[in-house]
Design goal:
This protein is an alpha+beta fold. Helices cover about 30% and strands about 20% of the residues. It starts with 7 loop residues before the first helix and ends with a strand.
Amino acid sequence: MRHGRLPRRRLIASLSKLLAGVVAVAVVSSFSVAAYAVWDVARSVKHGVTLVTLPGHTAVPQDIPNVGAIPGGVNLLLAGTDSRTGLGGVYNSAAEQDASSGAGNNDVTMLLHIAQDHKSMMVVSFPRDLMVRIPTCPTPDGKDTVSGSSYAQFNTSLSRGGLACVVLTVEKLTGVTIPFAAVINFDGVSAMSTAVGGVTVCLASKVKDDYTNPPLDLPAGESTLVGDQALSFLRSRHGVGDGSDLGRISNQQVFLSALARKIVSGGVLGNPVQLYALAKAAVQNVTPSETLTNPTTLVEIALALKDTGLQNMVFLQYPAVSDPQNVNRVIPDEEASTAVNNALVNDQPVALTGTTGRAAEDPSATATPTPTATESAAPQTAPAAPTGTGTPAPTNSSGAVELPSNVTGQTAAQQTCTKGNN
């Protein structure tokens, strides 16, 4: 047997293992867990995207000194890209790459609005097939601009000018300033569902979709979705509701409300380990705006919702009606979108009076007639949904703005079920 000093490489390896062991022991305390987690998340953050503001909009200060609930209100836009670039695995096939590569389209776009007093939250989902005005946008490298369009499909804004263009389009549409934004890819959705230990959803009927990757074949009842199966559930269009993108939005709201219940009622907001695990899953798989590159900002935004209450967390679809120029597209519903925009601009809580959407049902709700929308004469350009007027709308006894009945959605407190398209 050989004796003597360890070679330098083995000594360094041994010290590294010892250091790892010390770190593992140290993180037993909650303070050390938080400190280690901040470092672990920080090293995963990607380079941030520079956002630009529309004239008359004011940027929000970015420096947030303490790990606690973020002060004031929050507007955060999340764009889900359908790009397969760089994902590897099942997405490396020629068929998948041909489906979408590069920046991709923002097939899922959601605006999170947290009220100034943190007592209410709204998540607005924008239909991918919404025909809107897209403003002139900077190119992703910031060296040039991309011409705007008076009539374009909303989900092309990401491929036109990157994340900043999606933000500008939503700011133009709604009238709000959006200082926080991120693009999330397929892997990010899988990782975040895994980080919370899966999300349990209710299915009113079976959901089968051979067009997702991996394919879906879920029985009626409750299913706990993790990883790629959760991604397929969120992407499913043919398997839910009427097979439309609008049906997919209400199906996503079933998932998001269940996720919100797990995060709030399951104690995630009070657990720094799980919070930072969720933050790490996010930052590893998103391209954030520069305002989100601080590793604790996502945690601070989450903590702003700690005392909001599930009944005050509202998920809704941006109201739209069929486009008279193309039955496969939709345009903003003028009256209903004005009500949504005003609530956002005036920082008012909202109350839903309509249904849960095409692919969701609330087993505890009484049946109500499905609202019908009146279509106007065919326009030459996509009508810009009127932005906030600055005049608060009438409110109910609890102080919430009652939205028109053709605004579909649900609260996080509603335990809704997905309706399959089979």
